[in-house]
Amino acid sequence: MQYQVPQFIETEDKVVGPFSIRQFAYVGAAAVVSGMCYFFLQTWLFAIVALILIGGALALSFVKVNGRPLIKVGVAAFNYYWKPQMYVWKSEHPAPAQHAAPTVTRELPPIAAIASGNSLHKSWENLQTGTPAPGKMQSDRQFVEKKMTERYQIFQRQSGERDAARRVDYR
Question: 161 lies in which domain range?
Answer without folding.
Answer: 111-166
